[in-house]
Structure formats: structure tokens, C-alpha cells
Amino acid sequence: MSSALKYLSFCLSSTILLWQCASIQSPSGGEKDINPPIVVKTTPEQGALNINPTEIEIEFDEFFVQRNLSNELLISPPLNEKPIISQKGKSLFLELKEELSQNKTYTLNFGKGIADLHEGNLLENYSLVFSTGPTLDSLFIKGTLRACPQQKLPEGLIVAAYEKNTFVKDSTVFLTKPNYFSIPDPDGHFHIEKMKAGNYEIIAFEDINANYQFDGFPEQIAFYPNSIALEDSSNINLWLFKEEEKLKVLDQKNEGSFVKWVFNKNTDSYKIDSEPRVDFYKKTVGDSLFIWPKGVDSDSILFLLTLEESVDTALYILDTTQKSEIRIIEPSNKYVKKGGNYTCQTTTPIAGVNVSKVKLESEGIAKDFQIHQSDFELSFEFEHEENQSYQLTFEQGALKGLHNSKNDSTNLTFFTKAESTLASLKINLESKSKHYFIELLKDGEVCERVSSEIPLYFKNLLPDNYELRLVVDSNQDGKWTAGNYFENRLPEEVHYYDEALNLRANWELEIDWEP
Known about the structure:
With 515 residues, the chain is mainly beta. It folds into five domains: 93 residues, Immunoglobulin-like, CATH 2.60.40.1220; 102 residues, Immunoglobulin-like (Sandwich), CATH 2.60.40.10; 69 residues, Immunoglobulin-like, CATH 2.60.40; 90 residues, Immunoglobulin-like (Sandwich), CATH 2.60.40.3710; 94 residues, Immunoglobulin-like, CATH 2.60.40.
């Protein structure tokens, strides 16, 4: 063999050897995969009839992983034994441990139990449907799930259907998984499909721990108040809410000048007694209740707090070494409407006001005012001038509190506006409810509200973007009331206006609204 031929043979062999030893790698770069696995083939086929399989195979277009699939997989009608789940390559296998019933439509919903291997993209709400008889069940229940009192629905919601011969509010929804279910879209629309004729209880719930069962508070719930006899498809509305916890005391303490209770939720449903009997100030802030005895001779007082079905006690012992103070809380809203008063709150009771140490000024000019005083609030009545900024000054000792406490020097500011710079809103309402109130909101906070007894008109508003909601006040207590599942009592409905309201200066916006 010639030298040239030997050299060529050596180069070719080396090239082949290097090619065989090289590692095969995925190309780098490119867009991130955001797609879940796609089902390319199932055995039995989707919608198959007259079959009774002992094994089910689902083939995907890519490699996948299971995500708690044994719990995510829901089979309707339910089986007595869970199938054995396995996978090989790009295929998933379910080995059934029992024979399926005749003439039944079976739905296998895989929940969030399958994701692609590399990026973890979930295949959500995929279902395989087939029938052991000649037809598929085709009835459905659809509708809309709304939240109250908040507007936005939480994540992880399930709308569930339970087949029940008798409509009794029992522990079924706590102990069993639903016969059929649907995952609503972000707007709350749901569609429970492939249902057979029968009687159903319908609920929706926030599945925080992903077990397809309602676990009670703090998971939110919605329910339809009647059994649905499904002979034809149905359309319903559901209202999601969080049930009220039973009121209870979390903590109580004596602070030397006052007694404090902390509850598990905000409340004004309580009764206070004392031994010996004394007068006292009380103030509720969020989930806390504060009690201050009024000018008593006794150094110790036993306070009794009565809640719904329980009684708690707190012993007040005066501690003269503990410093007491009274602070003035500056309001977050600095705008005062024409004809309105400027009000501010205090942290502790107001025992007296030294008016000579309070000054109201505008552009350096002193203004006359009158003070209307209550236990924790000062309301300033003054002559309004348009487009003015005001400075309210409390000198040290202007306010006298309990146990010789006094305020530190405090400066507050507020302003007025000319009517030509303000906006108004008129509402033409078509409502089936007789008792309701409407709230105007800014950044989720209530600015103003009107009730059904007065004209639906907001005036002298600062130009801005607002939201509008209507609360159906069925029990006429002036606040939204939650429902109760076991009492079959629905929550009071809350309706939000569909669009944000852009209120402009020197303009009245008039809207028609049919919640």
C-alpha cells in the first residue's frame, strides 16, 4: 500500500473514531419551551364506545414526569381500588384493578398530575372519556363563579358535582372527592361535562392543599342552595366566600392604664361588664378591643367579656409608673368636601381640650373654628374657602388624656377644592334587590357609599379612576355578611361594575347599571 493511501486510511479511521466518541448534546440557545406535553394517542381512543379495558395507555409527544398523579387522578364514576400507574418512555399506563360497570361513561381527569420533563409545564385539566356501553353521557352543568366581597378570584379553584339521592348538608364534601368537576377559567366560567342524569349537589372551593376535597376554613367555598335534578343541561351562578370563624379570644393583657383583648377576627359583637361596676371607654381597632376605666378610685377592676357562647375575664390593675400618652392620628384622606368637617382620631380617650393651644391657619392667616369632641375623635367645623390649604396645629398639652397624659406638638394639613375642579357620578340602577348599598372605591379602599334609601349620586369627587361595587344587604345590617354551608345560607351578593370609572374635572359621569 502506498504511503499516500496509508495516510488517507489513517485520517479516515481517526475521523470515524472521534465521531463515535463525541457526546450528543441538545443545541444551545433558542426560545424556552412553554408548552405542556401533547397527547398523540390513547388506548382506548378518546370517546370510544362498547369497551371494557383492563389497561389504559396514553402516549405523549415528549418525555414527561408525574406530579403526585395518584392523588391528582380523578375517575368518575369512582372506582373501589386505585389503578396501578406506571410509565415507559413517552407513554403512561394505568392498570385497572377491577372490572368496569356496564353501560357507564367513564371520565379520567388527570388534574395537574402530568408535566413535561425539562421545564415542568403542566398539562392541566386533561380528560380521557370512554363508555362501556353504546353511548356517551352528554349532559353538563355550566355557569359562572364570582367572588365576594373581594373582586378577584383566588387560584386553585374547583367546581365539583356530587351525586346524591337526598339533598342534605352533610360531611360528603369534606370526606369524599367529587363525581365530576371542572377548573374555572380566570373569569370564573366553568363547564362540567359528560355527566349522566341524576341528582347533584354543586359546590366550588379553594383547594389550597390540592386534595380535591373541601377542608373548611380558611378555604373558601361556594354552593348552590338546591339539589339539581339533571335531566337536561343546566346553567347556574355561584358565589365564593370565606365562612366566618367562631369568634374567640387569642390573647388578653393588662397594660397598666388599659385592658386589651385580641380576637381571631374583627368584631363588634361582644358585651362588657365589670366588678365593681364602673364606667369605661372602649375602642375597637382591627381585631383588638381596648378598655380604659373612667375616673375610678379602685386600683383593680375585674372586666368580664361575653362573646357569643363564652366569657373571658381580665383583671385591670392601675400601674402609676407606666407612662400613658395620647397621640393624634393623621387621616390618610386630606381632602375636605364643601360643607364637611375635618376629623382626626386619637389613640387613647380624650378627657379634655385646651382650645387656646389649637390653631387653624390658611396662608398664614388664622381661621375661626369650632371643635366637636367625642371619646376618640375631634371634628373641626370651619368656614370653607375654595382651593385652599390649611394647617392645623396642636401645641403640646392641647389634649388632655387619662392619668394626666397629654399630646406632643402635632401639625396636620388638609385642603379644599373649587367645584369647577371636581367630578360627579350619577347611577341609574336596575336592581332586583330592595336593600343594598353602593361603595365607591379607590385602590381597593372605600371612599364613599350611598344606600338604597337615597339618590344614587356621588358629587364633589377628586378627579381619578374609581371602582364601583354593590352589596346586597339582605339582613339590612349595613355590612356584607358571609354565608354558611351547613345552614344552607348564601352569602350576600357583591356586584362590581365592569369597568373602571375615569372621573374628570368639571364633569358629571352618568352610567346605567344592571348588576
